[in-house]
Prior knowledge:
Elements: H1 2-22, H2 27-33, H3 38-49, H4 63-66, H5 68-87, H6 92-109, H7 118-129, E1 134-137, E2 144-147
Antiparallel strand pairs: 1-2
Amino acid sequence: MARIKSILTEAKQIDRAVTLIQLGARLQVLESETDLSYERLLRLYKEVAGKSPSKGQLPFSTDWFMTWQPNIHSSLFLNIHEYLNKASELDEIDAVIKAYQLYQEQIQAQGLEPMLSVTRAWRLVKFVDNGMLTMTPCSKCGGHFVTHPHEIARHFVCGLCNPPARAGKGKQAGSLQIPAHAH
Ligand SMILES: [Zn+2]
């Protein structure tokens, strides 16, 4: 039985790794989220992606998530992620995968390009887990947006309600909607 269990566990891990590669995840995400060996992951990556993984550091800064359009995309993803976490008992990485797939679907349904990569989505969840980022409700629309911790909710206005002057009226992230949470 133990043998069968370990085969099942391995199959599940390979399945996760393949899904993450298909979504465009960096190799570091796979290393962190599976117990498969580096060599194994590297082979799998080349097989599925048809190329070698890109080298270099993962983005470690929270700054990107604070810029206008990325913030709206990140907030959309994180709202979906929080909802899934409350509504189901998915393993942490499966919640990231599922939320990312739903984020992609919503973005593409509006004819937009996903701006948030799965690697950044994964980092975002880590940043929220360790308290470097959080969500704050907008004082105008009530939608929850990614912010630094200790943002004063009474004064916070999101990037949809207060887009930068240069934003114009094009079909950009400004046409996305972040649902206000029911309390
Ligand atoms: Zn708002």
